[in-house]
Write a structure and sequence with these properties.
about 0% helix; 5-stranded antiparallel sheet; 4-stranded antiparallel sheet; mainly beta; globular
Length: about 350
C-alpha cells in the first residue's frame, strides 16, 4: 500500500445508529489540503474505536450492539488491510458476555490487544496470532469503587487502556473512580499485575477519560470528561511514581453550559496539546513547556459541528481532523507547527456519526 506525505490514508470509526454502515476509509491530500475518497471499508455494527498495528497490516475495532441480548456482537473484531486499496477483510470476532468495550490499543509488536470496558468496569487482554486474528482473553481485571458524581460515577467505568512508552506497564483510566490504575504486564503469559503504589487518584469528581504520553516519556496528560480539564502528571518508570503537577480547564471562564471533555492528543513533536470539548464544540489548544510539563492555553477553535467526540493529527503534524458525532461531519484544519494554531480548510464534510479517526502509520 503506497503511503507518502502527499496521500495519507486513514479510517473513521462510527456509530451505526443512523446512516453509517461501519468503518470508512479516506485519503488526506496534504498538497491540496483536502479530504478525499471517503468510502465504506467494512460493514460492522457500531465500530466506535479503532487501533492499527504498526506495520499497517491489521485494524482492530470495538464491536457494539444496540441490543443487549445480542451478546455475540459485543466484543472486538480483527480485519486485514488490503495492501492495494483501503478495503478491510474480516479475520475474526472475539466476544465476551456483557456489554462491549469502548477503547482498544495494541503493543508495538502486535502481540496483544488491550480493551477498556466502560460499562463493565473491566480491562481485558487479548493475544493476537501471527496472522492478526484475536484469541480468547489471557486476562481480565475488574475494577471496584465509585466517585462523588452519583449519576456518572456509581461504579467503575474504564474508558482507556494502553501501554506505557517502554511497554512495561498498562495504564487504565477509570472515569467512575477518578483513578489511573497501573499494571505490570507479563508479555510471556499475557497477564496483568496491579501495582497499587504506582496507581493514583485524581481530583474527586473529575471523571478522567483518555490520556496521552509526552514523547519525552516524562509526562502524562489526562482529559477529564466531567470537569473538562487537563490533568498533567509527572511519570517516572524508574521510581514507579506518578505525581500531579497541574490542572487546567479546557473551557473559557465565562462558559456555563453543559460540556464534557472527550479526546486528547499531542503534536508529534510534543510542543502543543489539543483537547476536544463536547458542548462548547471546540478544540482547545495549549503550548507545552517540555522542561516542566506544564500547559499554557493558546486558543479555542470551533469544530463547525456538534459533539467532537474524537479528532486526530496526521503523522507529520501538519493537519488535524475533528469528528463531530452528533452533526455527522468531519472538519479539516491545517496546523501552524511553530505556533500550534489551527486554520479551517474548506467546509465540513458529511460522514455519518463519526467517532474515531485513525491514520495509517508512517
Amino acid at each position: 500500500m503506497e503511503i507518502n506525505n502527499t496521500k495519507l490514508k486513514g479510517y473513521i470509526g462510527t456509530y451505526t445508529q443512523g446512516k453509517s454502515e461501519g468503518i470508512y476509509s479516506f485519503i488526506l491530500n496534504t498538497d491540496a489540503g483536502l479530504i478525499e475518497n471517503i468510502e465504506l471499508a467494512a460493514k460492522l455494527e457500531n465500530p466506535t474505536y479503532l487501533a492499527i498495528d504498526k506495520e499497517n497490516r491489521f485494524i482492530y475495532s470495538v464491536v457494539k450492539s444496540p441490543d443487549e441480548n445480542m451478546l455475540e456482537s459485543n466484543g472486538v473484531a480483527s480485519y486485514s488491510i488490503n495492501q492495494e486499496d483501503s478495503n478491510l477483510k474480516l479475520l475474526n470476532y472475539e466476544t465476551l458476555e456483557g456489554k462491549s468495550p469502548c477503547y482498544v490499543s495494541t503493543d508495538k509488536n502486535n502481540s496483544y490487544l488491550f480493551s477498556a470496558n466502560y460499562h463493565e468496569g473491566t480491562l481485558a487482554v487479548f493475544p493476537i496470532t501471527d496472522v492478526g486474528s484475536i484469541a480468547m482473553p489471557s486476562d481480565i481485571v475488574e475494577h471496584s469503587g465509585s466517585g462523588p458524581n452519583k449519576e456518572r460515577q456509581d461504579a467503575p467505568h474504564v474508558h482507556y487502556a494502553s501501554l506505557s512508552p517502554g511497554e512495561k506497564h498498562v495504564f487504565a483510566v477509570d472515569l467512575g473512580t477518578d483513578r489511573i490504575e497501573v499494571y505490570e504486564f507479563d508479555f510471556e503469559k499475557g497477564k496483568l499485575s496491579h501495582n497499587p503504589n504506582f496507581s493514583i487518584s485524581l481530583k474527586p469528581g473529575c471523571g478522567p477519560r483518555h490520556s496521552t504520553f509526552h514523547p519525552n516519556g516524562k509526562y502524562i496528560y489526562v482529559i477529564t470528561e466531567l470537569s473538562s480539564e487537563i490533568a498533567v502528571l509527572e511519570y517516572s518508570a524508574e521510581n514507579y511514581s506518578l505525581k500531579e503537577l497541574q490542572y487546567v480547564s479546557t473551557l473559557p471562564q465565562d462558559f456555563k453550559r453543559e460540556n464534557t471533555g472527550a479526546a486528547i492528543h499531542l503534536s508529534p513533536d510534543g510542543k502543543f496539546l489539543y483537547a476536544s470539548n463536547r458542548g462548547h464544540n471546540s478544540i482547545a489548544v495549549f503550548s507545552v513547556d517540555e522542561s516542566t510539563g506544564s500547559l499554557q492555553f493558546i486558543s479555542h477553535y470551533f469544530t463547525k459541528g456538534d459533539g467532537p467526540r474524537d479528532f486526530n493529527i496526521d503523522p507529520y503534524g501538519k493537519f488535524l481532523i475533528a469528528a463531530n458525532q452528533n452533526s455527522s461531519n468531519i472538519v479539516l484544519y491545517s496546523i501552524n507547527k511553530d505556533q500550534g494554531t489551527l486554520t479551517q480548510l474548506g467546509e465540513p464534510i458529511e460522514v455519518p456519526n463519526p467517532v474515531c479517526i485513525k491514520f495509517l502509520n508512517i
